[in-house]
Amino acid sequence: MEPLIKEILADLYRIDPELKTHEAELAKLVSRLLAARPDADLDEKFRQELRERLLAEFAASRREKRSLAAGLARFFAANRFGLAASGTLAAVIIAVALLYSPTGAPVLTPTTGDTLALGPRITPAADHAFGSLALTTGNDASNASIRQSSSAPTPLAASATSEIAPLGLGGGGASGVPGLKMIAPDMMPSYIQPTRYRFNYTGELAAPAAQVEILKRDTSLDTGALTTIFAKLDLGLMNFAELRNLAVQNINLVEDRDFGYQISLNFDDGSISINQNWNRWPQTRQDCAAGQDCSPPRVRQEDIPADEELIRIAAEFAGRLGISTDAYAAPKVDSSWRRWYAQAENKADYWFPEQVSVNYPLLVNGKKVYYNDGREAGLSISIDVRARRVTNVSPIYSQRYLSSAYAGETDPARILEVAAQGGIMPYYGGGEEAKVIDVSLAEPESAYYWHWSYQNGRSESLLVPALVFPVPSASEDSSLYLEKVVVPLAKEILDQAGQNAGPMPYLLKGGTATTTAEPAATK
Amino acid sequence: MTDGLERGLAARCRQGDAKAFGELYDLHFRKIYDFIYYKTHHRETAQDLASETFFKALKSISSFDPDRGSFSSWIYRIARNTVTDHYRTSRAHLNIDDAWDLASGSDTAADVDALMKVSAVREALQRLKPEQRDIVILRVWQELSYQEIAAALGKSEASCKMSFSRSVRELRASLPLNLLIALLLPALWNR
């Protein structure tokens, strides 16, 4: 009996021992089956030709993928997508190319030519090219309501000299109708004497320029080349070619590995952000049984790496991913937790942060950029203090700007007046009842103010030349956290400064509040 | 062929190594072609469907996951589906899986030689369900192990064994009397 027949029968007996009683019959049956095996005549020429056709197809698909990758590269080059992170961009291009690779093979050798600008690029535009510098303008429906509400008489649009004292930064407290008293006064907290800060600068200001060059981040990208690629995709689910005026807004990629990352490419604002891929990071609570104390162990103060170590981790990560920090000033660790800890009444119960950020201040034309509250704009790299790994990097912005001239504020007194109230968004009011604390400002630095403007349904960011006055840390009042007073030098913005509604009013002594503020002027 | 070699070749394919795909083709073409031929009984049809099978494999090589099964079982599945699709689309009015399901004499495309060869057992095999028939073909004509058959059909090894056992019992019961006599006589003579 042939070995194969023996093997087949042995298998059969293991499954169904009763069959062994028919062994002779079954052996013949299997033998007959084997003998009936058709002779599948194989044409060797056909086999060889098919092999050649397959390999030719394989090569063609590789060429197509190279073309796809080249298309992506051309797209980014044509748009001069001047990311501060050329390395990350290259990684994204590779990853995007991989997404559409039929064989999953890497198809792009990243190149960083002149077209991928690393640092800021500033292109001059006509005067007043960015339109109004108002916070909100536009003609769409959503703006209409904003415009209406901001132009209507607003009794609570109190200026810094209003006799309304702010109740706090939260909501509630005052009626929006002139002359009305506070609602449910007995529900209000007891009287808190408001505090008002008066920021004084006694030095000399250089004569302000009549014109200021405002920069606008240029996020316009022609995604046509990219959408063409998508339009040709055959996912077997729908016909992309039928869609019109396609544009790519976002691409999200994930690293599917332990401690991997999610990379979000936002074409609308020309930015990349990197975040943890939560699915692949250890979760301290995931194995927690019901009823158990599932609180992760608290971070201890000694768990937080030294600043030098945090900066080293951030720099190593940025270097590994090719994220250029050339357009940024020296990194600083956000040590605000130390301030909170110093002020904590119960230090034993203090929660130390799980993550600490290393901030790289953005430099444009060699100047720092500040938000209204005095924080520096820039690149933030957060680090998990337990894992000692980077968790987030954002925003990696394109550094491409248009430049346009606007009228500058030429009156130094007006600049100091705005500085005295803490910037264009008054820090606190307080009226006559307020306790006034004088704070001396140090010599200002020339910088940019990051101005958000909502124009025609889009949020846009402008960099406006500004004077930034440092607030000495040794303040009389420990609740003052303002570190810098930012005064933009564009006249149009300063003219709006007094029109912003301040915080909700304080409860005046005696339990009632009246409003005496004039309605906000409308331009 | 070792699993490690298959994994390595498949990984090289995904990295764009055409030579690796050529090696996988060389290793598997004959078995796949034979399998298709056994299900079609017709050389040109088998050639067409083998071509289609390997082009499908080339197109979707990036989706092949060696952790979920061998390349061999993966391409057997593609071949089996390709044959089924061929018959179901070309004879949309019939629910058939392969040439075995065609009534005798209705398959004008079948090779005469193949029909002659299987004629003795055709009637018996034809009574089996398509999947049972595939298991018999894969086990007896292709000499695959139950493990390989299970992977190719996406079934458990135990169910493939049970199915084969059941098929043998059915074949034994349904073989034409003259064939049975022909089978049994030599056994009697050998007593």
Q: Can you describe what's shown?
A:
The complex is a heterodimer of chains A (523) and B (191). Chain A is of the alpha+beta class and 523 residues long. In chain A, 25% of the residues lie in helices and 22% in strands. In chain A, helix 3 packs antiparallel against helix 6. Chain B is mostly helical. Chain B is built from nine helices and no strands. The radius of gyration of chain B is 18 Å and the shape is globular. At the A-B interface, helix 1, helix 2 and helix 3 of A face helix 2, helix 3, helix 5, helix 6 and helix 8 of B.
How would you summarize what this structure contains?
Chain A has 523 residues and is an alpha+beta fold. Chain A has ten helices and 20 strands. The longest helix of chain A is centred in the N-terminal third of the chain and has 35 residues.
Shape of chain B: globular
Assembly state of the chains shown: heterodimer
Structural class of chain B: mainly alpha
Tally the beta strands of chain A. Answer: 20
Q: What percentage of amino acids of chain B are in beta strands?
A: under 5%
Distance between the first and last residues' Cα of chain B? 42 Å
Q: What is the arithmetic mean of pLDDT of chain A?
A: 73
Strand content of chain A: 15-25%
Report the major sheet of chain B.
none
Tally of DSSP β-strands of chain B: 0
Can you count the helices of chain A?
10
List keywords for this structure.
heterodimer; A: 523 residues; alpha+beta; 9-stranded mixed beta sheet; 7-stranded antiparallel beta sheet; disordered C terminus; B: mainly alpha; 9 helices; 72% helix
SSE map:
The complex is a heterodimer of chains A (523) and B (191).
Chain A: H1 3-15, H2 23-35, H3 44-78, H4 86-99, E1 121-124, E2 136-137, H5 141-151, E3 165-168, E4 195-200, E5 211-217, H6 224-231, E6 250-254, E7 261-266, E8 271-276, H7 307-320, E9 332-333, H8 336-343, E10 355-361, E11 363-364, E12 367-370, E13 378-384, E14 389-397, E15 400-407, H9 412-420, E16 435-440, E17 445-455, E18 458-470, E19 484-488, H10 491-496, E20 504-506
Parallel strand pairs in A: 1-15, 2-17, 4-16, 12-17
Antiparallel strand pairs in A: 3-20, 5-15, 5-18, 6-7, 7-8, 8-14, 9-10, 10-13, 11-12, 13-14, 17-18, 18-19
Chain B: H1 3-14, H2 18-40, H3 43-59, H4 71-90, H5 112-126, H6 130-141, H7 146-153, H8 157-174, H9 177-189
Helix pairs in contact in B: 1-2, 2-3, 2-4, 3-4, 4-7, 6-8, 7-8
